């Protein structure tokens, strides 16, 4: 773009964690006035290389240059002084403190705490970039989108000239993404250099001037922002990805409802009502997707359906069996299989794969009061084969990768041929290979006639798998629609609680 | 009337070491470190302050010595828990055992277990002596005046209103965020622990230098542990912690006075002695539910 040296340049960055090479000689640069995306799968090393640029991680080799000057980064303090700001994926905000206090943190010298200065900077940013946020609000009371704005403000208030955003859209609903992009465009117009880390092709194409693709810690290529999606995807995964999608046949027309939830209410952890008047049928051979921003009752819904949380009123019926208020054992006996979002909490890390696979049905593996280790092992060997788990039956689950842990959970649940599958965030944190496998397994259950309730924050996943979507907002179903021909803008408005305004 | 004036005066006097200890422990815990070395730090402060005052004849030298010992105790605690990332419970209890043992050892070396040595205790200030009976209320040691009029407001202001206090609270709530904002987490925790340690040691030294003018074994008698409870009672707020200290001290002072009344002669005195501790337990049980601990409480910080 310009002939001057880049705002930020990384040369030959290498970082190892034990045997794992997270970054292998990565070169990257970003200039003032451009958005340079860093694209790659989970675990490709995107975050690591940018944590190095921000001084949060120390590189084993390579150098960082700012405007052509080599700088020594030992902590974020050095990076901030060099004009580099970063919005990490987990926001680096102190939740019980106010916005102004968060802005003031770390910048003061001596004892004086200048909150007025922080307030002025908030007002200034509101004028210049249209980012509005109340400086007196406590961060814990802000929405995720607002918290992200505070993070960007924090970086700007340190006069950063390079802004690194790590997966900034992962936590946002579609409307908020548009607002973020508008902000980024005005920042770039102001001469800022923006690094945009993402694994979402469409977003990368929408916002970036240039795209660098990382795969397994190596830089594959740096290309123009308008490179087509197929090409970017094949660079990212090293092969063309076809994705796993629900067959368009839409299954049998008249689906007999298997899971019937009516007028369900339940209290959340803080005693407030987390679910209100939830009524929902899921038919045989149907996947119903539950969309919504996390914290709107999804966790409670899954807990109630698996017997981990008692509903305060309403009913849950599977087939002809009333399961309202039943314990997990009865729920499972009636044919509900659950794959909760916290997969680590559903398995015992210290126990072997074989034992984890039978945890929910130990009674079937008893021989006269004793646990039949030989049969458990045989059972495990069969499931490892069938579900392509890359581990031995005696390996402790804690030693497995995320994808294999999820496969263990899938195997445990799906091998029992459940009539109803309640599954939450099944592919969160998994790489493309494991994601495709998990999705294909769910579709296989659908083909076999199971009723599947799929809770996910990943809209692409819901759109790819579900036949029908319901939107949860503040514990209520605020919208329902077929997936085919869905209006994503309307979906975003519903998720943001603006159903009526749309 | 005399009874009440005397009771309140004693309450303020007896609350003084608790106020220093509670403020000191609050600083440590707000930075994310539970300092169970407090009992030993107060003990070492009491002994070192006394020994230095005895050797030099100057209570002020004694006080300065106690402050240095407290800074060192805080630094050791920081070395163990911040630099080495050791378990805070084990480190703190180890520090307490070590400091008590060391104090008693040096006590033997210097005083050979002979007769109880005494120093001239610090005198009291009584600016309102002309007020008669009520004036006795203000007949307090300088360290008591300093505790309530200087240490508490200044400590509160620094913690709640200064940038250094913001940094202490931030490293105790979310050290990752503080680090990313350019705050030196290690340095902030060291400073918080050292300031806390010096306050604890002054609290201990108050007992030997002012209250008693002598050092005896088991002189702290669990006051450090009481401070740990008071910090939780105060929900990590200096003001509420001080109120807790006054409440404890009031009951503590009251039971001393009740014991000598004929009406209470039938009651075993051990029961009265236990009263303030029972009240602390009851207060914690009632107010300690759903308390929001500092976010990084007990967690060492390591950059990944």
Quick description:
The complex is a heterodimer of chains A (502) and B (304). With 502 residues, chain A is α/β, with parallel strands linked by helices.
Domain tally of chain B: 1
> How are the strands of the largest sheet of chain A arranged?
6-7-8-3-9-10
**Element pattern of chain B in H and E:** HHHHEEHHHHHHH
How many independent structural domains of chain A?
2
Strand order of the largest sheet of chain B: 1-2
- CATH level-1 class of the largest domain in chain A: Alpha Beta
The share of residues in extended strands of chain B comes to: under 5%
The CA-CA distance between the termini of chain B, in Å, is: 63 Å
CATH topology of chain B: ABC transporter involved in vitamin B12 uptake, BtuC
Summarize the biggest pleated sheet of chain A: 6 strands, mixed
Q: What is the number of helical segments of chain B per DSSP (H or I, 4+ residues)?
A: 11
* Strands of chain B, total number: 2
Model description:
The complex is a heterodimer of chains A (502) and B (304). Helices cover 32% and strands 26% of the residues of chain A. With 502 residues, chain A is of the alpha/beta class. Chain A has two domains: 8-237, P-loop containing nucleotide triphosphate hydrolases (Rossmann fold, 3-Layer(aba) Sandwich), CATH 3.40.50; 257-346 and 402-495, P-loop containing nucleotide triphosphate hydrolases (Rossmann fold, 3-Layer(aba) Sandwich), CATH 3.40.50.300. Chain A has a six-stranded mixed β-sheet with strand order 6-7-8-3-9-10, with helices on both faces. Chain A has a six-stranded mixed β-sheet with strand order 16-19-20-13-21-22, sandwiched between helices. Chain A has a four-stranded antiparallel β-sheet with strand order 2-1-4-5, with helices on one face. By secondary structure, chain B is mainly α. Chain B is 70% helix and 1% strand. Chain B contains eleven helices and two strands. Chain B has helices at 2-30, 38-56, 59-83, 88-111, 142-161, 163-173, 175-180, 185-212, 223-233, 238-259, 269-287, and strands at 124-125, 140-141. A two-stranded antiparallel sheet of chain B has the order 1-2. The model of chain B has no long low-confidence stretch (mean pLDDT 92). The chains are: A alpha/beta (502), B mainly alpha (304).
